[in-house]
User: Which sequence fits this backbone?
C-alpha cells in the first residue's frame, strides 16, 4: 500500500480517543507517512502523550498532568478504555512506520527537563532519524538544539511571519508549522525559497482539504484522515 502524504493529528481523533495507541494504530492502518502527538512530563519525570495541561477534557481525571505520577495517570481512562501512553510506548508502536512530529507542550518553565527526558527516550530507542521536535514555546526548541545539534526541529506559530525564517535558520531548523488560515501562496513560496518544510494545521472540512491538496510539497496536518485520503486520491488521479 502506498503511503498517504500527510500528518495524522493526534492519531485519528474524529473516530478514536486522541493521543492514544488506538488512534495511532488507525493512522498506521490508513497508511499516513507522518503523525503528530503531544508530550508532557509527569511529576516523576516521565514523558507522556497528552495534549492539554489538565486531565479534565480527555480523561476521567482532574488537575494538572504535571502534578501526577505516571502510576496515577495510568489509572485513568483516556477514552474507550484507553490509557494515557508514555512517549516510549507510542514510539515503540510507531518505530520504522512513519515520521513522528512530537510537539513539546512546554509553557515557560512549567516542566523543567521535558526536553532532555524526551530526547533520552528518542535516542535510547534509536529513533533520531524518525522524529521532528516542535513547539509553540520557541525557547523549548532552543533548549532542544542546545542538547542535540542534529535532531530535526521545527517552530509552531499561530500566524505567519517573515521573522520566523532567520530565527529558524539560526536554530538550524527545517520545519515550520502554521495555522492554515494564515498561509498564503506567497508564504508557501517563501518557505520553498528558504528550504523550509511547511506544515499547515488543521484543515478538516472537505473544501479546505481540496484546496491544500493543490500543494503536494506541503505537510497537511488534519483530524479528518478519511477526508484527506479522499482528496489526495482524487488529486493523484487528475495528475496521472
Assistant:
Amino acid at each position: 500500500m502506498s503511503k498517504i502524504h500527510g500528518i495524522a493529528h493526534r492519531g485519528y481523533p474524529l473516530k478514536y480517543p486522541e493521543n492514544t495507541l488506538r488512534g495511532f494504530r488507525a493512522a498506521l492502518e490508513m497508511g499516513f507517512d507522518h503523525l503528530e502527538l503531544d508530550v508532557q512530563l509527569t511529576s516523576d519525570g516521565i514523558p507522556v502523550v497528552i495534549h492539554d495541561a489538565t486531565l479534565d477534557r480527555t480523561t476521567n481525571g482532574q488537575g494538572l498532568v504535571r502534578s501526577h505520577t505516571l502510576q496515577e495517570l495510568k489509572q485513568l481512562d483516556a477514552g474507550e478504555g484507553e490509557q494515557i501512553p508514555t512517549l516510549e510506548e507510542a514510539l515503540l508502536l510507531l518505530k520504522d512506520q512513519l515520521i513522528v512530529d512530537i510537539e513539546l507542550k512546554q509553557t515557560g518553565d512549567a516542566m523543567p527537563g521535558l526536553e532532555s527526558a524526551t530526547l533520552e527516550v528518542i535516542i535510547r530507542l534509536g529513533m533520531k532519524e524518525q522524529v521532528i521536535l516542535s513547539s509553540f514555546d520557541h525557547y523549548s526548541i532552543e533548549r532542544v538544539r542546545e542538547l542535540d545539534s542534529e535532531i530535526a526541529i521545527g517552530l509552531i506559530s499561530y500566524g505567519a511571519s517573515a521573522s520566523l525564517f532567520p530565527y529558524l535558520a539560526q536554530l538550524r531548523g527545517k520545519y515550520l508549522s502554521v495555522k492554515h488560515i494564515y498561509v498564503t501562496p506567497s508564504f508557501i513560496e517563501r518557505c520553498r525559497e528558504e528550504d523550509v518544510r511547511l506544515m499547515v494545521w488543521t484543515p478538516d472540512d472537505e473544501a479546505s482539504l481540496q484546496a491544500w491538496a493543490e500543494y503536494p510539497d506541503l505537510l497537511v496536518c488534519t483530524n479528518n484522515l478519511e477526508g484527506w485520503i479522499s482528496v489526495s486520491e482524487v488529486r493523484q488521479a487528475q495528475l496521472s
